[in-house]
Amino acid sequence: MAYGKMFPLRPIQLFNLGMADVDAMTAILDSGDRAGAYLYYYNIIRDVDRDAADQILMQMQITTYSGFFGGGFPI
To answer: Domain residue spans in the chain?
Structure first.
């Protein structure tokens, strides 16, 4: 199955993601709180696209559990 069929791309406008949200998530990431950034994004999209929100929670679990190797290391 093609990647695009498994995870179809959706226009970002559907999620009502503004620059204030991007700045807030960037600040959360800069503070080292990777899970917090995922939760912030989840709260934006949970009522818009439940499947995408569920995927965000799964990704958060993977990156927070796996630490450096799964989530990367801030420079």
So the answer is: 32-69
